[in-house]
């Protein structure tokens, strides 16, 4: 038997004295509620909790910010305490944002993930509450469908872990101090794959906007670690701040734009390419740069117009076509404050910022006490040990063989067997995709019927789209490249290590095979800067590529290795 009941009524009725007095729990009990716009107008919703929900409803109406909403749902449970109510409030906000039917009007500073007595039992009740609300039409997708969506994974309504919350708090404290003293600043957030760098960037964008829009008319969540930033002169300091989120990667940028489109206070115009920043006629107060290691140095761009634009931006900003200026220099010149999120081991092309430049950026932040490491692994069930393990097994400093009890890490001798297993995981969990290094030409780009990859009689094609490929309708039948998956989560990843990596039996080492590497931008030299990339240079980048591919799967990673000597060498790492 369920312990909860869901009461439905109009927003106007919820403010009436008769309703308030009809049940003592309306005035003195922890209640979670939603107020939405029903079927009329823009689909918007607000989620709240209160010990006096009757008074809270009147307050909402008086402030005017939610007076356009029409329908109320109250979740009343005889077993609820304050902690359970706060937990359910955060739970519903997260899933409503991920579902996508409504634009969630809440701020994100009060999202909690705190432990309390009996939480496991309450979580089971929350699932029942979700199911009931789903039947009522408040949700349009099931929990597994929501969890697998980018709207959920990239939502600004995520609960931050300790590392992330500490970084956000310290960065905001420093930013406000700098704004008050009119001092420029630069911060760096550094973390391995799966530590949630992109989540922190998106969270910061939303939190800064919420603080700027705060009027103080509604109650603050005093338990929120960020509540102090809504007080005093903080909102005024941020009110006219010009802020942008820079995302170098096209696919990830498009996914973030979809999230911003569904989030009040955020607009897609705030999500920018480095070229858009460099060519903007104005100045930015703050730029947050995700995947900052993917910013470009001067190199041959994807098209002639972009090469011309690189020159024009550099000349406009620095008075001459200085070939040593990078997109990082553009960011520094165009903004007063910067927050860079990076992982140098995820640089995958020669045009990316040189390692020395990234190291200098990190060292500068460290010396100013503005370097914030993220260490808690949020993606891979194998944890940080797995991340280090797969990254190092392709290097000369290979690790001791290790098993991962909570992670499905397997080597396959037959690609057909791998695909069969991956298809089963797709049926069970969704988001099981086949990935590969760029070791085959992209023939199907210009001929939709062409075969790109042929292994053991199996014919495959590369991704048909570079934008949001993982969620495209044909992705389960295709192979994703590094340029479609960097920054994304999968449940299971099937990774083909192509013939661009081989094992030299005589030298007893892994080597790069240039003849089997087909990313033109991934191996071309840089005549503008006089740089010629050796096989050893490119080996480091290709290792990084496979390091990224091997760390996409949250539940497991299945591996097929084309080069037989390399397969036999790597076999000892799968136990």
From TrEMBL:
Gene3D superfamilies: P-loop containing nucleotide triphosphate hydrolases
Highest taxon of the lineage: Bacteria
All residue ranges annotated as the GIY-YIG domain in the record: 28-107
Name of the protein described by the UniProt record: GIY-YIG domain-containing protein
Protein source organism: Okibacterium fritillariae
């Amino acid at each position: 038997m369920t312990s909860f009941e869901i009461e439905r009524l109009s927003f106007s009725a919820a403010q009436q004295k008769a309703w308030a007095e009809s049940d003592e729990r309306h005035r003195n009990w922890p209640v979670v509620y939603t107020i939405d716009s029903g079927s009329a107008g823009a689909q918007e919703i607000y989620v709240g909790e209160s010990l006096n929900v009757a008074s809270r409803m009147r307050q909402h109406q008086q402030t005017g910010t939610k007076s356009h909403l029409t329908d109320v749902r109250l979740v009343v449970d005889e077993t609820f305490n304050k902690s359970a109510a706060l937990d359910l409030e955060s739970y519903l906000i997260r899933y409503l944002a991920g579902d996508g039917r409504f634009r969630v009007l809440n701020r994100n500073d009060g999202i909690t993930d705190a432990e309390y007595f009996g939480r496991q039992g309450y979580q089971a009740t929350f699932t029942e509450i979700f199911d009931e609300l789903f039947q009522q039409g408040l949700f349009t997708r099931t929990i597994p469908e929501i969890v697998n969506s980018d709207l959920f994974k990239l939502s600004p309504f995520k609960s931050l872990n300790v590392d992330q919350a500490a970084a956000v708090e310290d960065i905001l404290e420093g930013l406000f101090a700098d704004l008050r003293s009119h001092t420029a600043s630069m911060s760096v957030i550094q973390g391995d794959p799966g530590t949630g760098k992109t989540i922190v960037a998106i969270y910061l964008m939303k939190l800064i906007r919420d603080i700027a829009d705060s009027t103080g008319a509604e109650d603050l969540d005093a338990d929120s670690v960020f509540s102090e930033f809504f007080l005093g002169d903080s909102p005024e300091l941020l009110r006219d701040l010009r802020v942008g989120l820079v995302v170098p990667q096209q696919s990830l940028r498009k996914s973030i734009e979809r999230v911003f489109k569904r989030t009040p206070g955020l607009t897609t115009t705030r999500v920018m390419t480095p070229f858009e920043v460099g060519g903007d006629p104005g100045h930015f107060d703050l730029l947050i740069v995700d995947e900052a290691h993917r910013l470009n140095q001067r190199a041959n761009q994807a098209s002639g117009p972009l090469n011309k634009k690189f020159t024009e931006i550099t000349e406009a900003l620095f008075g001459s076509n200085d070939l040593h200026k990078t997109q990082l220099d553009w960011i520094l010149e165009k903004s007063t404050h910067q927050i860079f999120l990076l992982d140098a081991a995820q640089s995958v092309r020669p045009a990316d910022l040189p390692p020395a430049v990234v190291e200098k950026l990190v060292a500068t932040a460290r010396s100013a006490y503005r370097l914030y490491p993220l260490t808690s692994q949020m993606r891979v069930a194998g944890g940080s040990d797995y991340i280090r393990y797969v990254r190092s097994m392709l290097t000369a400093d290979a690790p001791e063989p290790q098993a991962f009890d909570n992670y499905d890490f397997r080597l396959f001798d037959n690609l057909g067997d791998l695909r069969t297993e991956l298809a089963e995981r797709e049926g069970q969990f969704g988001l099981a995709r086949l990935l590969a290094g760029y070791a085959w030409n992209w023939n199907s780009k210009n001929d939709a019927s062409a075969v790109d990859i042929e292994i053991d009689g199996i014919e495959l094609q590369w991704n048909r789209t570079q934008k949001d490929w993982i969620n495209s309708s044909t992705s389960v039948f295709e192979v994703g490249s590094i340029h479609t998956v960097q920054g994304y989560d999968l449940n299971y990843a099937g990774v083909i290590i192509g013939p661009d990596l081989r094992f030299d039996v005589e030298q007893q080492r892994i080597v790069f095979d240039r003849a089997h590497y087909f990313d033109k931008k991934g191996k071309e030299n840089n005549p503008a800067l006089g740089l010629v990339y050796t096989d050893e240079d490119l080996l480091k980048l290709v290792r990084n590529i496979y390091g990224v591919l091997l760390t996409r799967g949250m539940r497991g990673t299945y591996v097929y290795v084309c080069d037989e000597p390399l397969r036999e060498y790597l076999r000892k790492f799968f136990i």
